[in-house]
Amino acid sequence: MSERTEVRFSKAKAFYDTFERKGSGDKVTHYCPGCGHGTIQKLIADCIDELEIQDKTVFLSPVGCSVFSYYYYDTGNIQCSHGRAPAVATGVRRTLPEAVIISYQGDGDLAGIGMTEIVHAANRGENITVIFVNNAIYGMTGGQMAPTTPMGQKTPTSPFGREVLRDGRPMGMAELIASLSAPVYVERCSVATAKDVLKARKVILKSLQNQVDKLGFSFIEILSPCPTNWGMDPVESRVWMQEQLAVLFPLGVYKDVTTHLVAVDPGKFHSPMDDDKLRELLRGASEVPVQRSSPLPHTQLIKVAGFGGQGVLSAGELLATCGMSEGIQVSWLPSYGPEMRGGSANVSVILSEDDIGSPLVDHPNVFIAMNGPSLDAFEDAVAPGGLILVNSAIVTRKVSRTDVRVVYIPATELARQEGLLSAANVVMVTAYLYITKAFSIETLRRCIPLVLRKKAYLNQNLALVEKVLDHCVRTAGSAGSDESDGSAGSENG
Amino acid sequence: MNHVEICKDECKGCGVCVETCPRDCLMIGDEINAIGYQHVVFVGMGRCTACGMCYRVCPEPGALTVMADVKEV
Fold first, then answer.
1. Fold of B3-67
2. ipTM of the assembly?
């Protein structure tokens, strides 16, 4: 026997030397004596060391006892809101194709609060590793019943024991995830015995290797003791796990298709948009922010309403885009849905020099009525002194209010003459700007290409703007009289 | 000789390693450590095989370090 010895098993490099959770120099975790989290997190750290992935690992801590994992792992760390770690993992995956992402979640977090996130991340087959630590209760908050709590188990929220008719049956998450087609590897293991722990290490290693190899979604459920909340000592709790928990949640491989998979090029499906494309997309109206020379006369509370298909929402979008391009605050709130099927659609737009608190417009000071039913619906809601623009090519009646300014524009007719029947919205926006001078017509010309879906009609749209301006100028005799109910374009449709 | 180095102030005295060791090399001692637990002590000199089971099951990252004989060539 040798006199000299060497380190065979010691603290993993993936852990910080000291854990600066409370003050400095701490070396111990915050877990209770005999907690399974420590054992499992050591296995993960050990596997990170073995695979040499520490510098590209992003560890996602959940809400639960393992919330403080970021004090322990010397890797990338994100602490996620309750149950949402798989959604965060998805975001990280899409932005960092080479990262190794470990979503570490308990059963309250994953199977209770975050059931939606985990199921959809699994169903999309995100190339991530989920370590699901199942101790059959909500640990951090005091041992309340979780979706995984065994029948009959007494907890603070099931004081007489879990009962099937009241509480349902415990859920097998490994079984559930394995029933989806996308996950490539699903296994349930345990840390009850030394043998189980060694097995769990292999399973974790494989799940991380799958991710490094870009094979897809791996889900590892690990049964884990919570001596404190189970009311047992650490050794006793491990016996209970073998006798009870592992019977309810059988250990083993639930799905493994990794052997006949080839690596999926992450660029193939999750190709990050190249920078130029992204800039093009985000540029929108703000490409060249124009400093406004004069402030808006007052906050514009605009309502546009009409048939679905009249470009009501687009009119709002065009107005909001003009606002953004001049650096003022805007909001755009569509109201449609069932209304789109032949009824009336409407959109609320606010243009403001100040922050906008709510995007709702109950009492517009600008109302653009594209059809008769819309005028009927909103005429009374317009604020006194407001402006009503009426598409007089379609609306046959006059506005009955006398305390508002009304302008009639045969919008649909003007658009039809230009061969763009669907562009009545552009007519109304042009007239609105001509009348109120909220923005310059140049801003409008600049923003139309940004909003227009069918680029082939760009020139026709721009020509239509000129036509409308011409129309407004020709009818300007009455346009000058701001108070009358017959200003620019007052001819009746 | 094979043995386990115990960082006594990182041990919470859960006793899982004691239960796990196949050669009874570990036991809970009488001394109370800096964080208030009766920590584990190594009593297996000559029996320990440095199998590492205690290290694996221990929930604390740095409480146990397993030292193994250097194989002489």
1. Alpha-Beta Plaits (3.30.70)
2. 0.96
